[in-house]
Structure formats: structure tokens, C-alpha cells
Task: inverse folding
């Protein structure tokens, strides 16, 4: 029978089967055929075929993996191979914060590039927006303006951007409407409040939330493995209508997002505002958009068609790919 993978580590996976039984399953033969080698062969959201255990109905074996609609992944530096985070997504929810932990737009730019490469629709969610509003009254107006400018740049590129707060409830109704009847994965650095957002959307779901390191402003890893969670949306977010659902894959907090299967010379193709100018430089596809004369991309930056902020981010990420030295 078919089933959907809810969670798993090593060779033990929780699978929600079509007979409404959730089984703990191993991989039959311990090998699943995939198009390439992964750090983990199966991810939450995968659809698999399960052979139930004849002696214990709560156990089974995964026999085959159904063809995936899409996958979201990153390069696992320690394991030296790609790590699957989620499969078969409608949305990739990229959660960031204006503060606590600090706003890191290059992390989001990396994840956006990976989403473009994988063909997944990303949504940028800036949680803890109450902290951004505080910046306007406590002498940090310039910092607020920089954050708002970067969010607006993403919006101008056609990305959906939500400014919300799990603490105050701001924007949560719009967020719940977006997620309803969809399968979405939450991705972000530790401490951005992914679990808090889930707790607000479904008050029967109580996920552990972590505190921030005072020294580094970083969050602790409260989610240790990706898990698919079925939410019954809070009635306060659905205009009192009961029983509305959303499916969320809560992924572990990522401190350093490293791109997978994207070469430095190809990165520009996954910055959507660069795409119209690629191949139109004097040196065509051989242009690296750095110091070459007649570069159409740099001309677009000078003309304000491509923002300086995104061009700088692209340069930094390209250099990271070339050197293999990644920052937070």
C-alpha cells in the first residue's frame, strides 16, 4: 500500500499509510534507488510503497519510492553529499527575522536560489515583525529602513513577502490562508520562530521553542529532525470556520545554508532579475559579470534594473561556491 513519510532518521521512518495506520518502517534491502546519492534517501513528504509486517501491524518495510514532484535540499558539508529536507511541496516558507537572531538576507538569497533551481515556489516570511516596529522608536530607524528595503527588493522581484508576528498575531490570518490545504516546508536559521508560528496556527500542537544565545544572538536547535505535521488551523485565523487544515514540514534550524548542484558560473540563472541579461554580454555566456567590458548584467546594475544589494549578494555567494568557504 502507499503511504506518506512523516519523519525519519537513518533507516527508520514513520509512514502514514493509506489504511490510516502509522507504521515504523525500514527500507527493504536498506537501499532505495534514487537519481543520485543523498545524505538521507527519504524525506518528509515522500510518497512510498509499504509492505506491512505480517506479525506486527505497526511495522513495515518501504519497498519503493514514488516519483517526486520536487525536492528541497542543501549540501551537507559534514556528510559531503546533498541532504533532502522535504519533498512534494506546494510552498517553501523561508522564515527570517529583523532581529533576535539578526536579519541575514544572504541566507535567504541562497535559499531562494536553491528554490529556483528546484522549481519550488518560495514565500519569504519575516517573523517577529514587532521587533522591527520597535526599531522605529528606539533609535534604530536606519536599521529598520535597511530591512524594509531588502524585503521590498524581494517583493519587486515577484516573491511573496509576509511581515508577521507569532507574538502579536500580526499577519497570521493571511499566513494561515496561504497555507490552507497546502504542503509547505518551513526553512530558516535556528531561533527565527518556526515552531512558535506552528503553535499559534494550531493551539493543540505544542512544539518546544528555544531561547537565543545572548553572546551570539543565535537560536538553539529545538527541532532535531524534519517532521510533517497536520495542522487544524486555529478558528481565530479562519474567521471562526472550524476544521480547516494545513500540512507543514518543520525542518531543523540551519545555521549555514550551502547550495547544492549550483556552479558559481550558473548561479546568475537562479537570480531571477539576472536572467534577462544572461548571454547578452559582449563575451556571451563566458562573461563572469565582474570586470569584463560590455557586461549586460553590470549595466543593468548601473541602470538600477538590478539592485546593488542583490548584485553584491550574488558576488559573495559566487565566491563562496568557488572557494568552498561559506559564512552564516
Result:
Amino acid at each position: 500500500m502507499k503511504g506518506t513519510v512523516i519523519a525519519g532518521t537513518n533507516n527508520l521512518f514513520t509512514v502514514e499509510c493509506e489504511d490510516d495506520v502509522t507504521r515504523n518502517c525500514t527500507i527493504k534491502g536498506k537501499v532505495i534507488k534514487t537519481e543520485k546519492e543523498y545524505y538521507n534517501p527519504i524525506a518528509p513528504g515522500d510518497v512510498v510503497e509499504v509492505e506491512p509486517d505480517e506479525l506486527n501491524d505497526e511495522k513495515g518495510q518501504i519497498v519503493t519510492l514514488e516519483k517526486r514532484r520536487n525536492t528541497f535540499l542543501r549540501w551537507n558539508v559534514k556528510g559531503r553529499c546533498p541532504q533532502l529536507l522535504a519533498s512534494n511541496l506546494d510552498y517553501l516558507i523561508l522564515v527570517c527575522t529583523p532581529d533576535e537572531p539578526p536579519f541575514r538576507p544572504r541566507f535567504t538569497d541562497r535559499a531562494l536560489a536553491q528554490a529556483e533551481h528546484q522549481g519550488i515556489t518560495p514565500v519569504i516570511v519575516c517573523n517577529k515583525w514587532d521587533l522591527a516596529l520597535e526599531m522605529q522608536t528606539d533609535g534604530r530607524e536606519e536599521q529598520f529602513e535597511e530591512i524594509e528595503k531588502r524585503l521590498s527588493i524581494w517583493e519587486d522581484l515577484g516573491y511573496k513577502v509576509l511581515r508577521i508576528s507569532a507574538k502579536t498575531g500580526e499577519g497570521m490570518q493571511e499566513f494561515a490562508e496561504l497555507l490552507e490545504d497546502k504542503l509547505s516546508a518551513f526553512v530558516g536559521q535556528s531561533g527565527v520562530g518556526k515552531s512558535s508560528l506552528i503553535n499559534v496556527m494550531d493551539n493543540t500542537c505544542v512544539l518546544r521553542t528555544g531561547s537565543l544565545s545572548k553572546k551570539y544572538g543565535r537560536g538553539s536547535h529545538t527541532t532535531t529532525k524534519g517532521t510533517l505535521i497536520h495542522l487544524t488551523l486555529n478558528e481565530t485565523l479562519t474567521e471562526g470556520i472550524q476544521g480547516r487544515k494545513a500540512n507543514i514540514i518543520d525542518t531543523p534550524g540551519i545555521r549555514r545554508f550551502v547550495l547544492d548542484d549550483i556552479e558559481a558560473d550558473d548561479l546568475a540563472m537562479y537570480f531571477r532579475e539576472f536572467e534577462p541579461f544572461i548571454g547578452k554580454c559582449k563575451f556571451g555566456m563566458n562573461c563572469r559579470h565582474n570586470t569584463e567590458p560590455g557586461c549586460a548584467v553590470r549595466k543593468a546594475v548601473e541602470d538600477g534594473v538590478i539592485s546593488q544589494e542583490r548584485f553584491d549578494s550574488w558576488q559573495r555567494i559566487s565566491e563562496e561556491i568557488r572557494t568552498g568557504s561559506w559564512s552564516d
